[in-house]
Specification:
Layout: E1 15-17, E2 20-22, E3 25-32, E4 39-46, H1 48-66, H2 70-86, H3 88-99, H4 103-123, E5 130-132, E6 138-146, E7 149-153, H5 159-172, E8 176-180, H6 188-199, E9 206-209, H7 213-221, E10 227-231, H8 234-245, E11 250-254, E12 260-263, H9 269-281, E13 293-297, H10 298-314, H11 333-348, E14 352-355, E15 373-376, H12 382-385, E16 392-398, H13 401-408, E17 413-414, E18 416-420, H14 424-433, E19 438-441, E20 456-457, E21 460-461, H15 466-471, E22 474-482
Parallel strand pairs: 7-8, 7-10, 8-9, 10-11, 12-13, 12-18, 13-16, 15-16, 18-19
Antiparallel strand pairs: 1-2, 3-4, 5-6, 6-22, 11-21, 14-15, 17-20
C-alpha cells in the first residue's frame, strides 16, 4: 500500500469476477496514456460468456447480501473507504496515468470516491419505509427492498469516483452490481473491486467487465439485470433506454450538459470570474456539469470577458504528472481533434476566437492537449447547443434577467446552471426559471453528496446522491394487513 503506481506494476488482468482479477477472454485493446500516447496496459475485452458469468455470479450472490444487516453493509462500506484512502497515492497515479488529468484532480477523484462509499454507508440503515393512515382494522405499510442486480455503465472522466458513486448506493441497498468500465480509462474500476473484497464484500456482489458497446448491450439486455444505471453521453443514453425497454428495466440516466453560468452586473465579479474559469476548465472541460456557456450582463461584459481571457491565457497546460500543470489532457487525440473541429466550425459560423483554439506549443506530439479556449458568440451557432466535452467556453451578453433566462433555456439539455448576484430575490427567481435539475447561486461546480443531482431534457432521467439517489436503487413495496378479517363480509353474500 501507499506505493506510487507505475506501468510496471499495473495488474495484468482487468475483468473482476467473483472476487478476483481474471483474463477477459476477448480481444486485447491497448490502453494509452493521453499525455504522450504510450501504451500503459493491454486490456482484454470481457468475452460474451464471461459477461454472462459475471451477471450469473451477481444474481447468485445477491439474495444472501439482501438478508445481511444494513448495519453490516454500512460497516463494510466504511472499511472500504478507509482502504481507498490508505491506498490513495497508488490510485491517484493510476487515475492520472490512465485518464490524463492532473495529479491534483486525480487526488480529488480518489477522495471523493471514498466519500461516496461513506455516504452510502450512512444511508444503508436509513432507507425507511412508512406507515400510512389506516381505516378501521387495516394496517398499511411500505418497505424499501433491493432491486436485485444493477447493471452500471460509467464514463471515462472520473472512473474511480463514478465506480464508487454507483457501487456504494447499490450495495448499501442490498443489491449486487455488474459494472462496465469505460473503454478509454478502464484500469481503476477493477481495483475498487479488489478493495471492496479486501474490506470483506462477499464474492460476486461487485463484478467489473471491460469492453465497448457490445459488452454494454450484453449487460443491459441480460434478463437477470433488473436496473440499469448509466452516466455518459446522451446518444449512448438513448441506446441504453432502447436496450432496457424490452425487459422493462428501471433506468437511471445522467447524461450530457450544456450548462449556463449567468453573471449579473451586481455580482461579486472577483468570485464570479474565478469560479467561472474553474467551472469550465477543470478536468479539461470534461465534466458533464461544466459551465460551458458564460452569460454576462452587458454593462460588465467587457470587464468580465477580459478577465476570463487573461486567466485562461495564463493557465499552464501540460504533463499531468508535473505539479505545476493546472490543465492536463483531454482523453485522446481523437477527442482533441473533435474539440478543434468544433471550435473551427464555430468560427466559420461567426464566433470570435478570443483565446486558445489550438494545441499548446510545448507538449509531446502524441499527447492529447488543448489550450483553454474562449469564444464570443452571438446568435446560436452549433457550439452553443452541442456538448463539446473539452476546455471550450462560449460567452454571450444579455440585457435583462428575462433575456438571461431565455438564453440559458435555449438548449435541449438541462443538467445544471448557476447565477451570480447580490440580489437574493433575483437569484431565486433565476434558479426557478432556468430549466435544470441542479442550480448554484454565487457558486459553481461544487457538488454536495447529500443533495440529489440529475437532469431534465436531454440531460437524463432520475437523480443520484442524497436520499432520493439512494432510494433509486430500491423497490418500494406496499403491504396491507387486515387485523380482523373475520369482520369482513363475504363478497357473495347479501348485505345484512
Amino acid at each position: 500500500m501507499n506505493q506510487v503506481l507505475t506501468v510496471a506494476n499495473i495488474p495484468r488482468h482487468h475483468t473482476f469476477l467473483n472476487g478476483q482479477l481474471v483474463a477477459g477472454g476477448g480481444p486485447p485493446v491497448p490502453d494509452a496514456h493521453p499525455g504522450d500516447g504510450s501504451v500503459i496496459a493491454t486490456v482484454e475485452e470481457t468475452a460474451p460468456g464471461t459477461v454472462q458469468d459475471a451477471v450469473s455470479g451477481a444474481a447468485a450472490a445477491q439474495p444472501a447480501w439482501a438478508r445481511t444487516s444494513p448495519h453490516e453493509r454500512a460497516r463494510l462500506l466504511r472499511a472500504a473507504a478507509d482502504l481507498v484512502e490508505a491506498d490513495a497515492e497508488r490510485l491517484v497515479h493510476l487515475v492520472a496515468l490512465d485518464n490524463g488529468k492532473t495529479l491534483a484532480e486525480a487526488r480529488g477523484d480518489v477522495f471523493v470516491a471514498a466519500a461516496h462509499l461513506r455516504s452510502a454507508a450512512a444511508w444503508a440503515p436509513s432507507l425507511e419505509g412508512a406507515t400510512l393512515p389506516a381505516d378501521g382494522t387495516t394496517l398499511r405499510m411500505t418497505f424499501r427492498e433491493p432491486v436485485g442486480v444493477v447493471g452500471a455503465i460509467i464514463p471515462f472522466n472520473a472512473p474511480l469516483m463514478f465506480a464508487a458513486q454507483k457501487a456504494g448506493p447499490a450495495l448499501a441497498a442490498g443489491n449486487a452490481i455488474v459494472l462496465k468500465a469505460p473503454e478509454q480509462s478502464p484500469l481503476a474500476p477493477p481495483l475498487l473491486g479488489e478493495i471492496l473484497t479486501k474490506a470483506g464484500l462477499p464474492d460476486g456482489l461487485l463484478q467489473v467487465v471491460q469492453g465497448g458497446g457490445a459488452v454494454g448491450h450484453a449487460l443491459v439486455t441480460h434478463p437477470a439485470v433488473t436496473m440499469v444505471s448509466f452516466t455518459g453521453s446522451t446518444d449512448v443514453g438513448r441506446q441504453v433506454m432502447r436496450d432496457a425497454a424490452d425487459g422493462m428495466k428501471r433506468v437511471l440516466l445522467e447524461l450530457g450538459g450544456k450548462s449556463a453560468n449567468i453573471v449579473y452586473a451586481d455580482a461579486d465579479l472577483d468570485a464570479a470570474v474565478h469560479a467561472s474559469v474553474g467551472g469550465i476548465f477543470r478536468n479539461a472541460g470534461q465534466r458533464c456539469f461544466s459551465g460551458s456557456r458564460l452569460l454576462v450582463e452587458e454593462s460588465v461584459a467587457d470587464e468580465v470577458i477580459a478577465r476570463v481571457v487573461a486567466i485562461a491565457e495564463g493557465i499552464r497546460v501540460g504533463d499531468p504528472f508535473d505539479r505545476k500543470s493546472r490543465l492536463g489532457c483531454v482523453i485522446s487525440t481523437r477527442q482533441e481533434r473533435r474539440v478543434h473541429d468544433m471550435v473551427t466550425t464555430a468560427v466559420d459560423q461567426g464566433a470570435t476566437l478570443l483565446t486558445g483554439g489550438r494545441r499548446p506549443d510545448d507538449v509531446p506530439d502524441e499527447g492529447a492537449y488543448y489550450r483553454p479556449t474562449v469564444l464570443a458568440v452571438e446568435g446560436t451557432p452549433d457550439i452553443v447547443r452541442d456538448e463539446v466535452f473539452g476546455p471550450v467556453l462560449t460567452v454571450q451578453r444579455f440585457t435583462s434577467a428575462d433575456h438571461a433566462v431565455e438564453l440559458a433555456n435555449d438548449s435541449p439539455f438541462g443538467l445544471v446552471g448557476g447565477c451570480w448576484t447580490r440580489d437574493l430575490n433575483r437569484a431565486l427567481d433565476t434558479a426557478r426559471a432556468v430549466r435544470t435539475g441542479y442550480f448554484w447561486i454565487n457558486s459553481y461546480g461544487a457538488l454536495a453528496l447529500d443533495a440529489p443531482i440529475g437532469g431534465v431534457g436531454l440531460s437524463g432521467i432520475g437523480r443520484e446522491l442524497g436520499r432520493i439517489g439512494h432510494e433509486a436503487y430500491t423497490e418500494l413495496k406496499t403491504v396491507v394487513v387486515d387485523t380482523a378479517p373475520h369482520l369482513t363480509p363475504h363478497w357473495y353474500e347479501e348485505p345484512q
